[in-house]
Specification:
alpha+beta, five-stranded antiparallel sheet
Length: 91
């Protein structure tokens, strides 16, 4: 039996300075009650402890091009942290 390698989902993001970056999507999800979409992604950077840095953004679809917006609401952050905790649990 052959091992099947998980394919990475990549997306391009455009920074405020207009540069484009390829990032790896870890998870995209929506809170059903608020209908807000989020994406958790990484640039595969490591911090001083060797941990991979992840980013979380709200997906704003109010214009023709979806935009990634920072999460500033504390209640929203707490809900997202719950999702991250679930993701990090060992199976």
């Amino acid at each position: 039996m052959e091992a099947v390698e998980n394919e990475k989902t990549m997306m391009s993001i455009i920074a405020e300075d207009g540069s484009t970056e390829q990032v790896e999507v870890i998870l995209a999800f929506e809170f059903k009650d608020t209908k807000k979409e989020y994406v958790i992604y990484t640039k595969n950077e490591k911090d001083e402890n060797g941990n991979v840095t992840i980013y979380v953004s709200h997906v704003d679809r109010s214009s023709s091009e979806p935009k990634l917006v920072g999460v500033e609401d504390e209640d929203e952050w707490n809900r997202i942290k719950d999702v991250l905790r679930e993701l990090s649990k060992p199976e």
